[in-house]
Design goal:
two-stranded antiparallel ribbon, Rossmann fold, alpha/beta, 14 strands, eight-stranded mixed beta sheet
Amino acid sequence: MRTQDPKERPLASADILSGLNDVTTVPATTGAQEKTSSGAAAWISPNVILSTIRTLEALVIGLVGVDLWALYISDGVLAGAAHYAAPILIVSGVVPIVFQAFGLYTVHALLRVAEQSARVALAWSIVFGVMTTIVFLTKAGDVYSRVWLLGWYAFGLVALLCFRFLVCSFVRKWNKDGRLDRSAVIVGGGPRAGKLIEALEATDDMDITITGIFDDRGDERSPAVINGYPKLGDVSQLVEFARNTRVDLLIVSLPLAAENRLLEVLKKLWVLPVDIRLSAHTDKLRFRPRAYSYIGSVPFFDVFDKPLSGWDMIIKTIEDRVIAALAIIFLAPVMALVALAIRLDSKGPALFKQKRYGFNNELIEVYKFRSMYVEQSDRSAVKLVTKDDPRVTKVGRFIRKTSLDELPQLFNVLKGQLSLVGPRPHATQAKAADRLYTEVVDGYFARHKVKPGITGWAQVKGWRGETDTTEKIERRVEHDLYYIENWSLTFDLYILATTPLALLNTENAY
């Protein structure tokens, strides 16, 4: 989506290659990360931007009409307000529809406001012209002030243009920073990847920036540089690369006929919180157009979608921050009493911090109320707490059974490290039947596609507490993955509402 001199792209790829020193001998993630991860801001969905602008422009037009009515017509009296409310509401609702038809809701239009000003003025004039024609034909002209109508047209146009120039300044900055383009990696090199890159670069509205290529094959079958883009490593290194570098999209260029190789690659990549697309532009087998998704005009099959993106991510973030803030306010007295009880029961701080796996395998420090004696605390959870564990204090037993020890994690939610609802964050050395969770469950890290939560679907279904058998962690992960695949706001609210009832079952909480 960024306007870019074609000559700049090979130079950028060369810079990445120089960071790698020797692609064939140096781990690929090292140099590439230095170039792509530093200061890399998160992708902003253009759909979210455009739908927000639609809503705000409708509000701008409505507010201009209301303000002019309040200043010139109302004279402090609401009489006749209903007559003016109707055209204000109708025009405010029609403006986004007409602007959409005029192609004014694209990133290109927002980046070039000066060039699009005439089109904005024409679209607004058509909307207003149709409205005034209807007023004339229905003989309702006497109801409305001509000064108000002309003022609404003039000030409405000025307000729309000013708003667009303001938006343009933000969009240009985001575009310059690469936040409107998805950062993409191509999986699979060789001639097929070359043809794919050529097809993508030939399209006018490509909304991705290709970082590089990953392929398990050697340089004799998959060259170190394809169309100016470097091969950064193999598929196993790609997983680590995506953990440390902003990657929004994985494009698999392998043919459908290479079924075994394709399944092997996808098995490694599906644990990542990214969109995964399978290239279809060179396949001879053709499906109906709606079977594909498109980047520009290039067709792809959707293999995996990032669980939360766009408006879903915004809604969940608002849910987390608002409810967590309210919960902290209302539960502050309870947390104060728990902290006091801990300090009176045993020496040491009331709070305990522990490293746990967060979103995309990131290590985060999770807050808890201390439930163990300080000298016996196990920060890596090498040995999970068991029934009548001597390391747990008297107060600790109570707060663990009632889950009061988890309340400080509300501050992790405010910091954006946790969600209210999600897979529980596990300690780095947590085990089931003396085996690390990653050794017990195949694809365990897929539960880290979303932020971990204070409570979750597994917890309300009874899979909380000690994991002394492999089945317990397997069932927990199974429920976590179900939650990720079926997320909705109502699902979250249901889990939050049923969590207090689930806490009454303390059978496995020690």
